[in-house]
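Quick review question:
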């Protein structure tokens, strides 16, 4: 039985790399819902960095500062799921990211262009700390 996906419009996000370099913990602040955390494996991060659209609009509003902050409690929370796979779809002015999770309902995040750029910048920053097993 396929679990129904939960769709959330992202307001802002923050990310943090684990000590080993296996994954990023992403914490999303979303419209009309509480904050959501999930672990994104390094393989998905590197795939996104290769395929995520790069901003080419000089008039794009700068992305919001990364928030909410990630705490040790977020890292220690066993309820935070791990992404197994990701399906992305570019829409006019948005990116739809459907995460298939190891447990719980799958999640779909919709990011506007500013948040896409914020995610690309954060992942690029952490790419030096992650281990690319496909390299």
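Suggested answer, residue by residue:
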């Amino acid at each position: 039985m396929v679990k129904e996906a939960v769709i959330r419009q992202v307001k802002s996000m923050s990310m943090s790399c684990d000590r080993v370099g296996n994954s990023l913990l992403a914490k999303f602040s979303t419209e009309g819902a509480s904050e959501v955390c999930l672990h994104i494996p390094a393989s998905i991060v590197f795939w996104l960095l290769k395929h995520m659209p790069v901003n080419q609009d000089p008039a794009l509003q700068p992305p919001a500062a990364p928030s909410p902050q990630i705490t040790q409690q977020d890292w220690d929370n066993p309820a935070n799921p791990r992404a197994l796979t990701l399906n992305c779809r570019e829409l006019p002015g948005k990116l739809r990211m459907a995460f298939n999770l190891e447990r719980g309902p799958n999640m779909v995040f919709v990011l506007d262009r500013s948040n896409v750029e914020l995610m690309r910048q954060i992942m690029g920053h952490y790419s030096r700390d992650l281990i690319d097993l496909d390299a």
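Why it works: Residues 84 and 117 are 23 Å apart (CA to CA). The first strand starts at residue 6 and ends at 17.
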